[in-house]
Amino acid sequence: MKTAFVTGASSGIGQATARALAAAGFQLIIAGRRQERLAALAAELAPVPVHALAFDVRDRAAVEAAVGGLPAEFARIDVLINNAGNAHGLAPIQDGDVADWDAMLDGNVKGLLYVSRAVLPRMGEGGFIVNIGSIAGHEAYANGNVYCASKAAVAMLTRTMRLDLLPRGIRVAEVAPGMVETEFSEVRFKGDEARAATVYKGVQPLTAADIADLIQFMVTRPPHVQIAEVIIFPAAQAAAATVRRDA
Ligand code: NDP
Ligand code: 8X3
């Protein structure tokens, strides 16, 4: 049985991806900070073998300890989905909250690096890494500043990782979604549900399951196929800040 490691599996895109990969025949390593969510997901996916790891991707020692301590039956990793991440705040650069900047750069960029560095010794020829970027990494939008920069880093890291890992036969891809309704906006607006709801007002956003379908398709292609970059929008979105809304 092949093993897929999904970070940020306690919610949204990561949780849906864990479900989709379990349905595709993978056993799973699922990670996040909210341990009870991971336990519930593992119970839901039974009898698929699932190993849950609770750690903060910003904590390098915790990442190394968690991955280093994987039991033998989960020690080889075929697929890594670097999904953990969030936006924190939406403010002009001159008013930005420095703690939010740290959370985004440390989580979205350094966290992805720490997890990849820890997992790569466990991945062989034919492996596949999917980094979850964003349309925000391909286009600037007002007040997106540090989130956009963190996702632009994910886009460029994906391309450079693909070059570096070519000799090892490891494929690397970026999935860059537009608007997906998850806990993303609630986190961005620090629990302000009314403000989060305005993001999706009058529009049918993508669901986490839509992104999971795409990821499942990508990682189940034959070994000679490497889908390298995909931007995925809801039909009502044409660019980061260009969305058709019902009146
Ligand atoms: P959610 O808020 O629903 O999920 C985020 C996940 O990331 C959670 O499982 C959370 O787990 C985990 N996570 C966040 N920070 C950390 C951390 N420091 N350490 C460990 N785990 C962490 O949002 P989405 O599912 O939408 O987001 C998933 C990815 O998709 C993110 O990288 C996001 O930037 C990206 N994305 C989202 C889009 C959207 O519109 N929703 C569009 C484009 C990209 P826990 O809190 O338990 O630690
Ligand atoms: C999430 C999509 O447009 O809010 O990455 O940045 S956006």
TrEMBL record:
The keyword Oxidoreductase applies. Keywords: Oxidoreductase. GO terms for molecular function: oxidoreductase activity, acting on the CH-OH group of donors, NAD or NADP as acceptor. InterPro entries: NAD(P)-bd_dom_sf (IPR036291), Sc_DH/Rdtase_CS (IPR020904), SDR_fam (IPR002347). SUPFAM superfamilies: NAD(P)-binding Rossmann-fold domains. Belongs to the short-chain dehydrogenases/reductases (SDR) family. This is SDR family NAD(P)-dependent oxidoreductase. It comes from Hymenobacter polaris.
